[in-house]
Amino acid sequence: MVSTKNSFGIMAMAAIVVAVAVLLNPFSTSASLGGDVASIEADRAKMQATLETTSKDLYTIHEIHVPNNVVVREFVSQSGSVFAVAWQGAARPDLRQLLGTYFDSFAKASQAKKSQRAGRGPLVIEQAGLVVEMSGHARSFLGRAYDPRTVPAGVPAAEIR
Amino acid sequence: MRTKRSREFPVTAILVFVVALVGIWISGCSSSGSPATTTTSTPTPVTTPTSNVQSISVTTGPAVASGRLAINSAFTSVTVCVPGSATQCQTISGILVDTGSSGLRVLSSALTVSLPQQTGSGGNPIAECGEFIDSETWGPVQTADISLAGEKASSVPIQVIGSSGFSVPTSCSDLGPVQDDLATLGMNGILGVGNFVQDCGEGCAESGASNVGLYYACPSSGCVVTSEGLAEQVSNPVASFATDNNGVVVELPAVSGTETSVTGSLVFGIGTQSNNGLGSATVYTLNPDTAAFTTTFKGQTLTDASFLDTGSNAIYFLDSASTGLPTCTDLNFWYCPSSTQSFSAVTQGANGATATINFSIANADSLTSNTNDGVAAGLGGPGPGLFDWGLPFFYGRTVYTAIEGTSTPGGDGPYWAY
What ipTM does this complex have? Predict the structure, then answer.
């Protein structure tokens, strides 16, 4: 039996491999949250999706429509970095792709949720440098992730949907 | 086929009536003492209704020894058999009753019978990355006969979670935390009796980028996403019953505060027998793609972002900013108001029917402090962007979950009624 701990150990190793690969490849555009606009195009290409852009006062929303009925919204600041991602649809998107360098923090925190009394409901992770919320039910999932330190001043978290 | 079943009760009733009349007529004849001729009547089988009541218990659950105490989790026992076999069977307890998902999932550590593995094209085993509200389940798709009360679903695809020989592919664990043993899942399995027939539906039968991507073909080189036909997907066993197959009724007693445990019923069928009629319940129809309806709370309307779910163990709604409820310092997935707060929300079906729901949220630290308690009305927590009416909603109610594509005396599924 493969325990969750083992799978995350494997994932940690995989993350190191990916990180090394990123360092070796100057043209790599992996990582969305915390990444630049080019990383959105990498996400779109990987998901074989279409992209729609909406400009707001303080940021731009890049909305990725995946053919499998999943919508991913990436929020880009005026300085050009992705400060938040949100998703909604028939399944959760690849969070390693979407959370980029934040994924390992997310994976670790989602394991720490376990306690003697456990919730069987939405997953909410609130750290100084990462907020992740995921919820939903069969065929209808939603969630978002952002780094509170990089959300532009004047943008309420409620706008990240 | 399923759509006709809801009319069986009246037909059966008429048959019983006719048989009774014939019986009276025959006995009348014989009492007249006609000589010589002997009437030989072929015994007419009198149809007795199928037993359709499955007992459920809300307790601290099967994972206490593994360090997990369930709260507001309704458990039941399920009998699985190798398809067609009456002897290679096993009854598994500690299975969560979940109206928020579809299909039976069992931990491999709890399964002792050897079920046939489903294979896809090329004879490769099929496995699934099952998606839940906060986690994934990973494991092979196998086939079983499933018995609940007097009902039986034959040759239904189920998921076996955490099976050796099926290591979790990163494409599954990249969707969220994988729960694949008793300590992480907190139960021996999940009985999904929700509004959908299949757990994924058409989205998983698509190919390429259109595939939702929950099913995998697993050659020895490793598991890769595959398209999976509807009939092969992990499916709600109720939809495969011969009778009482248009939905379920969950009945739980009213609870105030905490209890060690409570017992209730999972009744199969809606309006198919004398014990599962809609009575005075109102039908709330759903978005057929998402099995969701609408809840309005404090001026916020959560359109198609609200659902009833016995598998959620609290009322999970919005966030601290919207509700004014602080989360607990140690358990941030629950609310911890200093005193119990009363609220009101309005649920609305796609058909426009509305209901005002009054509910209270109490301090979760206090509610869960006694480790013997498996029941806590008033347990609530944040559910960003949605309104998830978990098991506390079901206390003191009779709630009907109608399956998509079926007909009932209250109209076609999918719907909820209460």
Answer: 0.84
